Structure of DNA-binding transcriptional ArsR family regulator:
Amino acid sequence: MVDDQVDRFFEVLADPTRRQVVRLLGEGPRRAGQLAAATGSSSPAMSRHLRILLSAGLVADERVPDDARVRIFRLNPEPVVAVQAWLDQVQAHWRDNLGSFKKHVEQRESS
């Protein structure tokens, strides 16, 4: 399950516009129109990007109580936490392997 989340995370963020949207939402919630203007995208293109980000769980949306037509988008931290956990595992694996390699080299040098 975690691997599926990680795969989907990287698949979705392969697109530079979606990475830019995630960066912008990292600064705070925004409306779709604000995101479109900030990325230089058309409204229909931004809608497609947001739909993909929503389906992947990277972004959440909420309706404004006074105007049901307005949606505010915000970053959802859960997928980022899953990717960070995966990266921590990869880093630990490489740290262990490199430590073993260093130990091996040092032993050969002292022989």
